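Suppose you are handed a protein chain with no further information: no name, no annotation, nothing but its sequence. What can you learn? This example shows the usual starting point.
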Amino acid sequence: MKTKEMVYAALFAALIGVLGMIPPIPLGFIPVPVTAQTLGVMLAGCFLGKKTGTISLILFIVLVALGLPLLSGGRGGLSVFVGPTIGYFLSWPVAVFCIGYMTEKVWSSLKTWKLIAINIVGGVVLISLIGAPVMAMITHTSVWAGLVGAIAFLPGDCIKAIIAAVIVTQLKSVSPIEQNAHNR
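A reasonable first move is to predict its three-dimensional structure. Written in structure tokens, the prediction is:
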């Protein structure tokens, strides 16, 4: 891994931590709040690509496990790994990998609408399909109830998918994916 890739991975781990400083919005009927951090997950995937994006999220998870209060609401430490948000939290590296993989596949013909679709599939649907059943298992509710509760995240997550797609489309020329495409 090049120094530049390590710096990008660290910067995006920090960005996701900064997005965690935005206060979470509790929903009352589901124990997982609405946060801004999934925007960082989508940005990492479609800006950094599958390898560097995944490394940035693994770094973020390690930092949280070490006790840094990087999750929304100032949470950190090993206790978050047994709470109802763990499925969502641990789905982030998987989502980043999938978003990065799909983005790299369409990079040469990149359009904003393609990135929106990729972010919705990898950053909205995939995170919910992993997070909701784990949350349901931890809270001793049905998986169906968890998935229905996760519908509350869809409007905000779709807005985040659009924001991430627009930002990355504008920054395409400085993306590590673009630089790797030229080096091939």
